[in-house]
Amino acid sequence: MAELEIRNLHVEIEDKKILKGLDLDVEKGKVHALMGPNGSGKSTLANVIMGHPALEVTEGTITFKGEDITEAAPEDRSQAGLFMAFQYPVAIPGVSVSKYLRMIINAQREARGEPQIKIKDFARTAQEAMELANIPKDFSSRYLNDGFSGGEKKRMELLQLALLRPEIAVLDETDSGLDIDALRTVAEGVNKFAGPDMGVLIITHYQRILHMVKPDAVHVMYQGRIVKEGGPELVSVLEDKGYGWIAEEVEAGAVA
Fold this sequence. Notes:
Elements: E1 4-13, E2 16-26, E3 31-35, H1 42-49, E4 56-64, E5 67-68, H2 74-80, E6 82-85, E7 92-96, H3 97-111, H4 119-132, E8 143-144, H5 150-164, E9 168-172, H6 180-193, E10 199-203, E11 217-222, E12 225-230, H7 233-241, H8 244-255
Parallel strand pairs: 3-10, 3-11, 6-9, 9-10
Antiparallel strand pairs: 1-2, 1-4, 4-5, 7-8, 11-12
């Protein structure tokens, strides 16, 4: 049984149907790649997994560790062990990285009925996480994502991964708009943190990050559904042939 199971998921936003009967399993300890052309519903899926309030689930279920979380609040999903790295992280001027990190640690501790982390313990924990994510010390005193480059914003997401150690991490087009050095940073982070205790769902329509992070499973999305699944070899097929043949197969199947 996969930690994250999605069954027959139908999702609308402002009466527009985006997901149309989607099925997907994401297992802890494995790297899953979700690919597909623009407009296929990939980011909608990422957001609905985390409980975005603007999205309406009209049918189907999202199950995490055996519990139905289809209607759960975003904070409850996070506290259960789900994490999402955003394509475009928001800047929060006036809130330091250090203050933000301590806040999210304390939110997790409060949910478990634990007292707030002591400043000394937080300093040590944060420093260990920054070393794991290969982030300089002065990062913690800067305001959250304020004036950050694209690569620095992605490092911030990796820092949260290192600190929170979720069971399933959803990375929504985290490779979008990055130069090769920033892309390598993201790939190194994913390779470092993915393992027996963490599963990763990388959402992308590029193949380049998947040359640095080898997925265990590849899922192809088209018009709101998963229409093809396979191993890492499917990445090479998509690189050679694009997505046109996927559309042709889907349309041929509909006619048949």
